[in-house]
Write a structure and sequence with these properties.
This protein is an alpha+beta fold. It contains 2 helices and 7 strands. The chain has helices spanning 2-14, 16-19; strands at residues 23-26, 32-37, 44-49, 55-56, 64-69, 78-79, 83-88. The strands form 2 sheets. A 5-stranded antiparallel β-sheet has the order 1-2-3-7-5. The longest helix has 13 residues, at 2-14.
Length: 89
């Protein structure tokens, strides 16, 4: 957990998209939080499954996942329990 937090803070400081105030909430399952940051030149997708069961989120397009916490992402649009993903779109 500590290593994830350190890496997340370092990536945030290095990414103009994550430092900007642009924020767009995306539709997802009840216990899944999904949003876009820096909707301009380098948009970033942030997805968090905050629940205690597998969640679902579908993003239409490729994502280069830069940071993840929890089990590896499941098949298709499944998100493992208590997982987090940040990627460049």
């Amino acid at each position: 957990m500590l290593n994830f937090a350190r890496e997340a803070i370092a990536r945030r400081k290095a990414s103009p998209a994550l430092l900007r105030r642009d924020f767009r909430l995306l539709q997802a399952d009840d216990e899944v939080l999904a949003f876009m940051r820096g909707c301009g030149e380098e948009p970033m997708l942030c997805v968090f499954n905050l629940g205690h069961r597998t969640g679902r989120f579908r993003f239409n397009g490729p994502v280069d996942w830069l940071l993840s916490f929890g089990k590896a992402c499941g098949e298709g649009d499944e998100l493992p329990v208590l997982s987090a993903y940040v990627g460049r779109v």
